[in-house]
Design goal:
Distance between the termini: 26 Å
Structural class: alpha/beta
Strand order of the largest sheet: 4-1-5-10-9-6-7-8
CATH class: Alpha Beta
Oligomer: single chain
Number of domains: 1
CATH architecture: 3-Layer(aba) Sandwich
Length: 290
């Protein structure tokens, strides 16, 4: 998929037709090749686009309208089914193109492993990068059942690449004992259960830094987001995640890109997960794209 190739199907609401002229580019990563429980997140990106038609273009939270942001939806990267390494290579190559063109990348997953090649590309362009990770799961395993390419490993890989002291995880409520021990001993910043208060405490420390944000929809309680592969009870509400997005918007961070992953429409019978995800994407566009 070339940088300037537009998707011929559904696009996110109010997407501009010209990718070359856009400031931000939405792109999909339809991959769920390594999931350990329920597959189906490869259908997430397109469903988020489809339900976005029900959004208002205006955000009363930010007093901004989508017409104020110049963004294009490039569609899904055509990832080869069942081939994790080739898929990751394609995502990384596409991100290299976006960054070379000076675009703000906003990715839609797909399983959480898709964030790993994005972080690699980001790190090459921004060696001082910090990572904000909002999720139910630690994702700090080195491997899963002997396989290092797993949706349970991207944050561990990120720690080893950019330094654990530059990784900030919020909302975590599930993981192996060894993962929590690694977080404690490595110097990374891991906040269990909550997002808002620990995030607001950290944001001043990150002022002026280049920050990438990755959000796993399963940080929400299953009552708010049942449509995900590995739902985890005890999560935050949609309102709290909106507040977190807005806190980042109001901060002095330089957000250089973001992704939203793990929406799985097959388990989302009321579509509340996809509807919430599309609203989060709207707020990210309005609050984070400069």
């Amino acid at each position: 998929m070339r940088f300037d190739e537009a998707y011929s199907g559904k696009v996110f609401i109010m997407s501009r037709p010209n990718i070359e002229e856009a400031d931000a580019v939405i792109y999909g990563m339809p991959m769920d090749w390594t999931v350990s429980f329920r597959p189906g997140s490869r259908f997430g990106p397109n469903r988020i686009r489809e339900v976005s038609i029900g959004l208002e273009e205006y955000s009363p939270y930010l007093d901004k309208h989508l017409e104020e942001v110049n963004y294009a939806d490039a569609g899904d990267i055509p990832l080869p089914f069942g081939n994790p390494q080739r898929s990751l290579d394609m995502i990384e190559a596409y991100l290299d193109e976006l960054l070379e063109k000076g675009k703000f990348p906003l990715g839609l997953g797909g399983e959480h492993l898709v964030s790993w090649p994005i972080i690699q590309a980001m790190y090459r362009k921004y060696p001082d990068i910090a990572l904000i990770h909002i999720d139910a799961h630690t994702d700090l395993r080195e491997e899963y059942e002997g396989e290092p390419l797993s949706h349970s490993t991207p944050i561990r890989k990120a720690c080893e690449l950019i330094g654990p002291e530059n990784v900030y995880s919020f909302g975590i409520r599930s993981g192996m004992r060894e993962e929590f021990q690694y977080a404690k001993e490595s110097g990374m910043h891991l906040s269990k259960f909550e997002v808002i208060e620990p995030l607001k405490k950290v944001l001043p420390q990150l002022a002026g830094r280049n920050v990438y944000v990755t959000i796993d929809i399963d940080v929400l309680d299953p009552a708010y987001a049942p449509g995900t592969g590995t739902a985890e009870a005890g999560g935050i509400s949609s309102k709290e995640l909106l507040e977190a997005i807005h806190a980042i918007s109001a901060s002095e961070l330089n957000v250089i890109g973001a992704d939203l992953v793990e929406v799985a429409p097959a388990y989302d019978h009321s579509e509340k997960t996809a509807i919430a995800a599309s609203k989060f994407v709207r707020e990210m566009l309005l609050g984070w794209v400069k």
